[in-house]
Amino acid sequence: IDVFLARSLLEKLYLFQYPIRPASMTYDDVTHLSAKIKPKQQKVELEMAIDTLNPNYCRSKGEQIALNVDGTCTDETSTYSSKLMDKQTFCSSQAASNVSRYAAAVYKKGELHLTPLHGILQLRPSFTYLDKADAKHREREAANEGGDSSQDEAEDDVKQITVRFSRPETEQARQRRVQSYEFLQKRQAEEHWVHLHYYGFKDSRSEHERQYLFSQGHGLAENTELIKSPSEYLMMLMPPSVEEENDKPMAPSNVLSMAQLRTLPLADQIKILMKNVKVMPFANLMSLLGSGTDSTAVLRCIQQVAMLVQGNWVVKSDVLYPKDTSSPHSGVPAEVLCRGRDFVMWKFTQDRWVVRKEVAAVTKLCPEDVKDFLEHMSVARINKGWEFMLPYDEDFVKKHPDIVQRQHMLWMGIQAKLEKVYNLLKEHLTPKKQEAQSAHPLLVSGEQRVNMAKAKVKQNYGQLEKEFQKQKVEMKSNDTSAKMDVSNICIKEEPVSDEEPMDTSAYEGMNNGIVNGLHAEEDSTDSLNGHLPGGCIDRVAQELKAFVSSTFKKQFVLTLSELKRLFNLHLASLPPGHMLFSGISDKMLQDTVLDTGCKQILVPFPPQTAASPDELKVYALWEAGDTYDQHRQVLLEIFSKNYRVRRNVIQNQLSQECGEDLNKQEVDRVLK
């Protein structure tokens, strides 16, 4: 039997438990005269009719009770206006303090739909009318004893009184007063009753509300929490015994058993290994995880706990310094430590050498903390500084350019945060010139890379010429194309600085140790898409268009920043090597949005807004193919004139433009 979780009546559904009814009372539609509730206390009071024509009803007893309660006079304040006890009041009490494990279930067509209960209330008869009868009786006795008092009695003598000021209430006395029964009763009485309207079982409103007991969407993501594999379900039914785990001998905290490690999930294995080793090449990690481990799954997990530095993986700072912890040396909170260690990691993405004094001057941390950061990922060299402990992993960079690009984007974001926090100067952002004795074959200067790129172009000239001639034949254009002057082919050269090496080739850039082997500018409009073959460009455009179309069919309205965030999440879910990792510029993404039937809504946001430019660009799906297209377009036109509109204005405008009166539910659906 498929089980579904219905959320429409979440925190709204109550279970009422009625007492065993007498023969003269029925719980059908006509018996409920009134109902009211105190929501905070979850207290309900129902007034139900008694069938006075039932043969089991004692009429004389009913008349006697009505006489005792109301007396002989009948007015608006009377409890029983018919001079007969024809109704009874029921008050609720909570049957259980914790109802989180109770639910209402509906079985229909082989499906079981569950709705969690918000409360279980037991209804019991209320006898407050007896208190009212006693009060009436005491009033009559007091009136009889008093008799006719004389109007000529002399007034009482004026007496002197003494005024005393009460002492200030202590904290202990106040707590005792707050916890007293009298105070709690007073607080409960202060909450006002909310009157309810009762709908019968066969009423159309009840039938409509009853449909909310069924899950509204079977295939939606909200039901994925109920989907478990057989092994997971078996583990939930029969969890491992705690006694068996306690019987195992405890190993020292600094010893890691590989046998026990491989019994854990893959993500936990990688996290424990990286936390202990701190810096590791990907090949070593695969060897520790054992044969048969999927490298794609490992790549997906390693990015959750580590960052790529010079082709090697370094454990993230928040893994070593969890939240709410502090430094053992200085007591600095974990947030400040993570920021300082991120600065050290980022420096190693720029250079193989880091100077300890420079790190201390920027981060303002104590020397012991800075030394811990450096010892995690580097080795001290006399009179040189700290060198990254592992060589640049060129093999990993060449095999996984998509991972390298994604990590480069993450480092760009971290760099932006560090610039704001530490007010970094240009000398901190640009890598220093390498000395001749510390040069590494993998670190190539900008001039050398330009020469290598020129040589490569000359070497591949013949192949490029053949491909060009082949493309000319295939075009079959009627117009005579201009002849290509090969001598005019030149390499785009930029001024080479001694302080900042440049990269002229996307392929040769893999040999550069700067920024994880990839050099790219964030604001550059020349994306890698321009270097892809024509067929690949078409496939990338189709993939991007499919993503944009499916996203707007779910969201309808998105800002550019939110769309970019969703696109990054989509990229993270794709397997390594996917064509979308070739590089998608903001302009290409916006053009695709406009090509899929969406329009940019020029919302007049206030000039003093703190939103970023990407948050001010709003795109909306203009035609979704449903019945609300016209209403949605009217609504978007309204928001193109004002960024804040009252609901009644929207409802009136929709009614005028569409020529029909929309009810509240329809307006809510369009607004949502």
Word description of this protein:
By secondary structure, the protein is of the alpha+beta class. It is 43% helix and 12% strand. The protein has 27 helices and 18 strands. The strands form five sheets. A six-stranded mixed β-sheet has the order 2-8-5-4-3-9, with no helix packed on it. The longest helix has 22 residues, at 401-422. The radius of gyration is 39 Å and the shape is elongated. It starts with a strand and ends with a helix. The model is unreliable at 150-154, 244-248, 433-442 and 478-531 (pLDDT under 50).
Task: Give a summary of the structure in a few sentences.
Residues 432-672 form the DNA-directed RNA polymerase III subunit RPC5 C-terminal domain. InterPro entries: RNA_pol_III_Rpc5, RPC5_C. With 672 residues, the protein is of the alpha+beta class.
Supply database-style keywords.
alpha+beta; three-stranded mixed beta sheet; elongated; about 675 residues; six-stranded mixed beta sheet
What do the pLDDT scores average to? Answer: 76
The percentage of residues in β strands lies in 5-15%
How do the strands line up in the largest sheet?
A: 2-8-5-4-3-9
Seen as an oligomer or otherwise, the chain set is: single chain
Radius of gyration: 39 Å
| Alpha carbon gap, first and last residue | 33 Å
Number of strand segments: 18
Uncertain spans: 150-154, 244-248, 433-442, 478-531
Described by strand count, sense and barrel closure, the largest sheet is:
6 strands, mixed
Give the helix/strand class. alpha+beta
What's the helical proportion of residues? 40-55%
Number of helices: 27
Identify the overall geometry.
Answer: elongated
